[in-house]
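quick one
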Amino acid sequence: MAVITKKSKPTKLAAKDLAEKIKKNALKKQKEDEEKNKLISPVNKKEKPVESVVSPEDELKFKTFSELKLVPELLESIQQMKFTKPTPIQSEAIPHALEGKDIIGLAQTGSGKTAAFAIPILQALWEAQTPYFGLVLAPTRELAYQIKETFDALGNSMGLRSVCIVGGMEMMDQARDLMRKPHIIVATPGRMMDHLENTKGFNLKNLKFLVMDEADRLLDMEFGPVLDKIFKVIPSKRTTYLFSATMTNKIEKLQRASLHNPVRVAVSTKYQTADNLMQSMMLVSDGYKNTYLIHLLNEFVGKSIIIFARTCAHTQRTSLLARILGFSAVPLHGQLTQAQRLGSLNKFKSGKANILIATDVAARGLDIPSVDVVINYDIPTDSKAYIHRVGRTARAGRSGKSISLVTQYDLEMYLRIESVLGKRLPKDPSPPREILDALHVHVDRATAEAIRQTKDFHEKRNDKIGGKKRRDDRDREER
Ligand code: AMP
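structure w/ adenosine monophosphate:
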C-alpha cells in the first residue's frame, strides 16, 4: 500500500478503483484474521473447538498401541513399560496428535498424560532426528524429573537424548548437557530462560514441539513474564500441547501459548478418594512437628493408625519416638530385614500394635480393612502416593480419617496434591499453645533419645551387612 500512495499519482477514477481495491484487501485480511483467530482462540469466539470428553469406562479409540503405526522402536519401549492398552487420555489425544494437531488435554497426573504427549513427539522425532526437537515446560522441579523419566523410558530403544533443566542445580553442568544437543528438554521456565539468555551457542530456533504440563499453572501470572520471553525466542511455527487437570477459559492466557487449531480432549478423573474418607490438613511449624504428631496420637488413642514418613530414617526415628513415649508402634521400611518387615506388619494386622509407621512401601497394595486413621507425617512427593496412602483407610465401606501435617516447606507439594484432588481440604485447628508447649518438653527429650537409637540401628545394620550393598539398600528413599 505504501507503494500505491507514494509512487503513483492516481486520477480521480483510479483513486476510486484503488479505494475499492484497498477495501477489498482489508476485507480479505479481516476474513483471514478471523479464520486465524478461530484457530487460535476457539474458546473466546464461542465456537466450539473439536472436543471430546471421555470417562474411563468409554470405548477406547484404539485398543492396542500396535494399531497406531508407531515406529517399532517406540512400540518396543511401550511393551517394555507394560502398557498393554492406552489409557483414556492417550486414546483420545494420540490419534489427533499423530495427525499433527495442537492439543489441549484435560487430564490429571496419574491418567497417563505424560505418555499421551511423549508418544507423538517421539514418533515425529524418529522421522526428524534433530536436536532441540521438543521442549516440555513444567511448573515444579519434581514434575520435570518425572516427565524426563517417562521420555527416557519411552525413548529407550531409539537412542533418545534428553535433559532436565531445573533450578537449584549447577548452571555449568546444565550448559554442558545442553551442548550435547539433546532431543528433548524438560525444564522449569525460569531456568530455561536463564540458559536461553546466558548459555553461549544454545538456542531453540529449531524447536518443533512445545508442551506445557500443568499448563493452567504455567499460564498463571507468576510465570507470565518468563513464558513471554521464552515464546519470543522459539519458533511460532511449531506444534503445541497444553496438558492440565483444569484449564482456563481465559483467552488472554491461552493466546499466550499461540495454539493453532487445537483439539480439546478431556477425561473424567480417574483418581478419586472414597466418599466415606474425611480428609484434613494441619499447618504445623517444622520444629514442632513431632509434638503435633504425639498430640494427635493422644487424641486417637486406641484407634488403628498408619503414619507415613518419607525416608527410612524418619520412619525408624518416629517409631522409636512413639515407643519411648509409651505408644504401641511398629516400623515398616526398606532397611529392615524382610522378616522384621513381616513381623511389624503381622503385629499391626493382629492388633498387637495399633500404630504402624511406614514409608511408601506400605502405601500400595496393603489390604488392612480396619485402619481408622492415616497420618501423613511427611507430605508425599507425588500426588498419586497421597491417594494411595489415604486409601489405606475408609476401605470396604468403612469410614476413615486422614490428616496431613503441612509445614512451611511442604506447601508447594501440598498444593499440588490439592489440585489433583480438585478441592481444598479443611484445616484442623491447632491444639492450644499451652498444651503444645507442655508436651513439647517431653517430646523433645524423647526425640533426642530416638535419634540416638536410630543412629545405633544404622550402625548395627551397617556392621551386619559389612558394607556390602543389599538389594534393600538402594531404596533408601522408599517409593
Ligand atoms: P502420568 O499420568 O503420566 O503421571 O502416568 C501415570 C502412571 O501411569 C505412570 O506410572 C505411567 O507409567 C503409567 N501409564 C501410562 N500409560 C499407561 C498405559 N497405557 N498402561 C499402563 N500404565 C500406564
